[in-house]
UniProtKB/TrEMBL annotation:
Protein name: Molybdenum ABC transporter substrate-binding protein
Top-level taxonomic group: Bacteria
Keyword Signal among record annotations: yes
Family classification: Belongs to the bacterial solute-binding protein ModA family.
Keywords assigned by UniProt, alphabetized: Metal-binding, Signal
SUPFAM superfamilies found in the cross-reference section: Periplasmic binding protein-like II (SSF53850)
Gene3D superfamilies: Periplasmic binding protein-like II (3.40.190.10)
Signal peptide: 1-22
Organism annotation: Planococcus kocurii
PROSITE patterns for this protein: PROKAR_LIPOPROTEIN
InterPro entries on file: ModA, ModA/WtpA
Length: 256
């Protein structure tokens, strides 16, 4: 019942958030929370090319957004921070398989308000302190799953588990660090680049697989041409340049 009411509220929100003319196309983009800032810039520049396409964004963890699409919530385009969530939608034929396109990569860093000495060793730092470490919820947030896997690969998960505090999405992990609710946090490097408060970053060891962001048009979308147009903009040279400006890497693992 709670989920149903949430979806109804989301649908009402999206149906009532525009006062544009009848000729405008309204495109609803469900996007990973780590894309919040870069998509604001994308929206401005895309509107110069397609002034009649109005963008509305629904941000959250990729797994939450995937669940909303599975339950029939309105969405035209899905920009995910998780290949796994995209593959689950693909297996249910809820997105257009031919439209799936990786558009960015990211990596994990340990973040702090204070700078780290150049010689800082990750394991020594996290093991020889009592400070809290914020991460995404491992079972429901891609950032949390990536963080847990990296810590397990370094045999640190069990040692640190009592000091971990969990966040509902990648953006909330950043907020925990910026507000001082956690002295340390494992965040995306792109979020560290745009944060005005975070001064210290340290690469997280144990990352064996690239963090790939795929996008795809939702199968039930009534605005498929507009959704395709925005996805093409995201993957274009102009879109890739904006992603670079906000700290993302190209899907090939190289800076665009």
């Amino acid at each position: 019942m709670k989920k149903t009411m949430g979806l109804i509220s989301l649908a009402l929100l999206m149906s009532g958030c525009s006062n544009t003319s009848a000729n405008d196309e309204k495109l609803l983009v469900s996007a990973a929370s780590s894309l919040t800032d870069v998509l604001k810039e994308m929206e401005l520049q895309f509107h110069e090319i397609e002034p009649n396409i109005e963008l509305t964004f629904n941000y959250g963890s990729s797994s939450k957004l995937r669940s909303q699409i599975e339950q029939g919530a309105p969405a035209d385009l899905f920009l995910s921070a998780s290949e796994t969530d995209m593959e689950l939608l693909e297996s249910q034929q809820l997105i257009n398989i031919d439209s799936v396109e990786p558009f960015a990569e990211n990596q994990l860093v340990l973040a702090s308000l204070e700078e780290f000495p150049e010689t800082t060793d990750f394991q020594e730092l996290v093991l020889n302190t009592e400070e809290k470490i914020a991460i995404g919820e491992p079972d429901s947030v891609p950032l949390g799953a990536y963080s847990k896997k990296a810590l397990e690969n370094e045999n640190l998960w069990n040692s640190l588990s009592a000091r971990l505090i969990y966040a509902k999405d990648a953006r909330q992990v950043v907020t925990y660090v910026e507000s001082g609710n956690a002295e340390l946090g494992i965040i995306y490097s792109s979020d560290a680049v745009i944060s005005r408060e975070i001064s210290g970053t340290l690469e997280v060891p144990g990352q064996t697989d690239p963090i790939i962001y795929p996008g795809a048009v939702v199968a039930d979308s009534a605005n498929q041409p507009a959704a395709t147009a925005f996805l093409e903009f995201v993957t274009s040279s102009k879109g890739q340049a904006i992603l670079k400006e906000y700290g993302f890497m190209s899907p090939a693992g190289e800076t665009p």
